[in-house]
Amino acid sequence: MADKAHITPIVFKWARESARMAAETAALKVNVPAERLLEWEAGTSLPTIKQAQTLAKAYKRPFALFFLPDIPRDFQPLQDFRRSDSKSLSTGSVFIIREIQQKQAWISETNRENSESKFPFVGRFTMNDNPAEVAQDILNMLAISPGQYTGGNAVKEWIDKAEAKGIFISRTSFINSHLTLDSDELQGFAIADPYAPFVFVNSEDWAAPQLFTLVHELAHIWIAATGISADVEPNFRKTDRLHPVELFCNEVAANALIPSSSLTSLGSNIYQSASQVFNVARTFGVSSFALLVRALNLNLISIDQYKTLKNAADTDFEAFLIKEEEKKARQKLSPTGPSYYLLQIQKNSRLFTQTVLDAFRGGSLEPTQASSLLNVKINHFHNLEAQLYKY
Q1: Total-model pTM
Q2: Nearest to 144 by CA among 122, 167, 125
Q3: pLDDT band at 336, cuts 50/70/90?
């Protein structure tokens, strides 16, 4: 008979509920009826050691946690700046938030212990300041010229320059092959710690929304507003449904990505067709929709022009989405794809990956902790480092 795991029922139940996992889903992980799982959580029966270990892995918790006498202190939930009618955070969102919090807590503690200076841009402004001034400060700090991106990859340029200033940028669309992230539920979040500012961007969306989300989250850092975001792309309707922080950060992002002076200098000819708008939007790294909202808010186009161009842009965008879905389908069938190690670097953040590897190589970080922080086995670190230098 298999050895039983004498778990603490209240902790066992808390671990599942904090993972936002239904009893039926958790029970499937160990091939038992949901009623049996609930018996374990009530303390009327016990799982085997193997079953408890499997569930610890599913909940992304240490196995030893199940044997604590009481529920442990966990990471504080991030403030939710999403609309009140937003989807509840699912297991994938909970897991990525917890994972980033763990990474952020380690690097913050390390920097404090090493007496590193605080980053002066964290909380440099408040919501009482002018969004255009905040945007200009971000552009100055990162040395970015909107619409003049080298290599045509605006997202990568913003990430590289943000990480060069000490801001950790994590970007992924999945936890594992069975657990993906929903951009309608979570587009990004920011942890505005002056010792270790961290930004997460859901990469399920295409490049333009990702860029707007990234700059929106940087605005959160600049006003020290730690929290979760969704519905980030700008709109001019139903703004009363958005949290004031989200409205402010959207304004900052719009000013940073599409400065009024840059857009005004292009003149009115760019609004003659949806294709012209698309081409201009692409130089700024934003969507046609974002550019049209910006132009409307700056009174560069009328509401009638906006509606006409938006309808045409929507038609083009639907065709674009179809092509993107076909592209994804082909990629799934293809044996080749992005390197596993590249995906891990993007998920961990390039700066975080380099920091952990440096600490490991320098002997100040235990191998098991380094492996846990990077989600890569120690004997594969050389593959990770090789990819890091190519990135």
Answers
A1: 0.90
A2: 167
A3: low
